[in-house]
Design brief:
The protein is of the alpha/beta class. Helices cover 40% and strands 27% of the residues. A six-stranded mixed sheet has the order 6-9-10-3-11-12, sandwiched between helices. Helix 5 packs across helix 6.
Length: 277
């Protein structure tokens, strides 16, 4: 008995639908395609000056996003607004993180929910060792006691991966560190605290090629299917050794263009002039 094409077609449709469902279920198990951060029409002032003028951004688990733009465009303001830095005033919009509205939550509460931010200019803290700082921070984030010997072994492993001298773990935080070592120390903090969302603000600024490669390596070590990374930068150096999912161009307080890594290459060649207009 011959089976006609018309009788096969419904079976093929059902099979395709089942495959789609299986893929969706697998992705959900891995965390892929699940919204982690959603920013809706966010407007932010700093000292009564309007900086952000309606930002919209969605980041799924498993993704690396980049916000690029010229100096003064609102990149750092975006990062600080996510963590609700009190120096910035939200005048409109909201921020949803991992299914919860964090628009007006306190910074430490947002950090405990799993948001980490590295700084452009990391602070020096005399008298507090790298180990003690990270031990205290991990305890506050997880709410669990830190076993010091295992913790030091973890630190040593990460520091060696980042080409940092393990002896630095007993030095005061960032005191006497070079610019590159301070930035590596921020990546070290990210790896140890293991947040759901890592916001890296100008982590690549002032670094030589080798240091940028090390920072990129740290990001790759951190990234998995259940977390996400938001990189904020004004140039494309860090993208030479890192694959990202989306690039957003921020100009004058608004995201004016979103694309793939190819968009970053275009900006490297032509600059921001076309988007400023």
């Amino acid at each position: 008995m011959c089976v006609g094409a018309n009788s096969i077609r419904p079976q093929m449709i059902i099979l395709k639908d089942l495959l789609k469902i299986k893929i969706i279920c697998n992705n959900k198990k891995k965390g892929l395609g699940i919204m982690l951060l959603e920013i809706n029409d966010l407007c932010v002032n700093a000292e009564d000056k309007e900086i952000l003028k309606g930002i919209n951004l969605k980041i799924n688990k498993g993704e690396i996003h980049v916000i690029m733009g010229p100096n003064g465009s609102g990149k750092t303001t975006t990062a600080n607004a996510i963590l609700n830095n009190p120096a910035y005033t939200k005048i409109g919009g909201n921020i949803i993180f991992d299914g919860q509205d964090i628009t007006h939550e306190k910074t430490d509460e947002i950090a405990r929910k799993g948001v980490f931010m590295s700084f452009q200019l990391p602070e020096e803290i005399p008298g507090v060792s790298v180990t003690n700082f990270l031990k205290y921070a991990k305890n506050k984030v997880t709410g669990e006691p830190v076993k010091i010997f295992a913790f030091k072994e973890e630190l040593k492993k990460y520091m060696e991966e980042l080409n940092m001298n393990p002896k630095y773990m007993e030095r005061s935080l960032n005191v006497g560190f070079s610019g590159g070592e301070k930035k590596k120390n921020e990546i070290l903090q990210m790896l140890v605290l293991n947040p759901k969302l890592a916001i890296l603000d100008e982590t690549d600024s002032g670094l030589d090629v080798d240091a940028i490669k090390t920072v990129s390596k740290g990001i790759e070590m951190f990234k998995n299917e259940n977390n996400a990374v938001l990189i904020i930068t004004h140039n494309t150096k860090i993208l030479h050794s890192l694959k990202v999912d989306y690039v957003h161009v921020l100009v004058n307080g608004k995201i004016v263009k979103t694309g793939t890594q190819e968009l970053a290459k275009e900006i490297e060649e032509n600059g921001y002039s076309k988007y400023k207009n």
